[in-house]
Amino acid sequence: MERKMEENMRDVDVGSEAGGEDALVGNVNKLMVTPPGYTGVPRKGHLVFDACFESGNLGRVDYISEFEFDLFIRPDTCNPRFRVWFNFTVENVRETQRVIFNIVNFSKTKSLYRDGMSPVVKSTSRPKWQRLPTKNVYYYRCPDHRRNYVMSFAFCFDREDDVYQFAYCYPYTYTRLQHYLDSLERRNLDYLQREQLGLSVQQRRLDLLTITSPAQQNPEKVKKLVVLTARVHPGESPASFICQGVIDFLVSQHPVAQTLRDHVIFKIVPMLNPDGVYLGNYRCSLMGFDLNRHWQEPSPWAHPTLHAVKQLIVQLSQDPVGLEFYIDVHAHSTMMNGFMYGNVFEEEERVQRQAVFPRLLCQNAPDFSFSNTSFNRDVVKAGTGRRFLGGLLDDTSYCYTLEVSFYSYMAAGSTSPVPYTEDTYMKLGRNVARTFLDYYRHNNFIDDNKLQIPNHINSMEVLSQGRQGNGNGNGRTSGSERGAERKNQSITGEY
């Protein structure tokens, strides 16, 4: 048994820590963490940590005791200021092994961990991500770490052969996006066009989707133009689920989607910062730039994806169709719900017109908060897409940042937060998409009398098309899914 164990661990680095704090320039790679001075044969329960995979992040592990480990987030590449996102695996566990993991070097002090947020976990035999129980998570100032804020969580491993994966929030990788876009392309939809708008510094695709009914079918119809972007901040993975929800709805056969395609051209850039996403950064690109502060003068070599998107938007703004909406999708680390940021204008009428879309979205989406929505002109935000494009486009255009909580939302009449799931993030995206119908009805651009929509469909009713990805479209959970969910429940079992 010991010989077999030794053979299995030959490709694993053995050590008690991964170097000093100043050495956090890479991810741990199959790092076995053993007690100090231990020289014997590796054993079950000597945990092996790994973050050398796409969107992975873990820079160092310190052994505190058999039951406790300090974990250090690797800073964003070329920028030590940002340490928030983590995503790593643990294997070689012992059945019923109880541990406490301390994430000790967050760069932010304010956090939703104060309000009940918890990391997500999955394992080999239970591949559906789940949030850890809130009661097993603690967020506090720690005297052992210069009074920095530490997030500790307790966990009990229950299956020796499983590899466990922990992350700050549900990961959505560059490869996952490519598979999703490939599958859309294979459907050969005449109202969907995918093109490569440019390449990142590391030569990853910058994809652009155009969704609209072919012009030749409705040559007499004037169309409005909407641009949506996501993942300029790579660690804000909920933005990708929202973006996929928007796309899924717009390419569907839902009557509202069909009507929108007839009247609106949607241009969607699902991942503005593919290098940052791939590398497991929280906020920056490969070269350490926060791209959402460089809209004013993006460099074609240092910020190629941003430069390409800005060129596209400037070009679209000069098109006779006219660019009416720009929405940039983000996730927020300290607030609940979905909400928006908008710009400040002198003209009261423009101020009122800008508030229409978020008000309508609030009626469509139970997790969207108009009271959290704000309009500002902070100097620090001058280089953001919303602020820059708000000054560039004419007064018939509206630019928003759509934010969604990394953790939860408060439903109407509820006193306890409802944690977001991958599905509810996508549902918010679907509700964003269908709100455009309400907006254009409100502004009499789409004539209700000419809509080919069954009478029982109300423009303010929240979309209920069934759970994303179950394929049956009836809103019910299949027997196999229920079984999988029951099977999954034990992964976050009592500590």
Note the topology.
Blueprint: H1 2-8, E1 13-15, E2 31-33, E3 48-50, E4 60-65, E5 68-72, E6 87-91, E7 98-103, E8 120-123, E9 126-131, E10 137-142, E11 148-156, E12 164-167, H2 174-186, E13 192-199, E14 205-211, E15 224-230, H3 238-250, H4 255-263, E16 264-269, H5 274-279, H6 304-317, E17 323-329, E18 338-342, H7 348-354, H8 356-364, E19 374-375, H9 385-392, E20 398-404, E21 408-409, E22 418-419, H10 422-442, H11 479-488
Helix pairs in contact: 3-10, 4-10, 8-10
Task: Kindly describe this structure.
- The strands form four sheets. An eight-stranded mixed β-sheet has the order 13-14-16-15-17-20-18-19, with helices on both faces.
- It has 495 residues and is of the alpha/beta class.
- It contains eleven helices and 22 strands.
- Residues 1-23 and 454-489 have low confidence and may be disordered.
- The radius of gyration is 24 Å and the shape is elongated.
Short description:
By secondary structure, this protein is an alpha/beta fold. The chain is built from eleven helices and 22 strands.
Q: Which spans have pLDDT < 50 for at least 5 consecutive residues?
A: 1-23, 454-489
- Choose one word for the global shape: elongated
Largest sheet: 8 strands, mixed
Q: C-alpha Rg, in Å? A: 24 Å
Compute the number of strand runs: 22
Q: Which percent range describes the beta-strand content?
A: 15-25%
Summarize model confidence as the mean pLDDT: 86
- Distance from N terminus to C terminus (CA atoms, Å) equals 29 Å
Percent of residues in helical segments?
10-25%
Which strand order do you get reading across the main beta sheet?
13-14-16-15-17-20-18-19
Backbone structural class:
alpha/beta
What's the helix count? 11
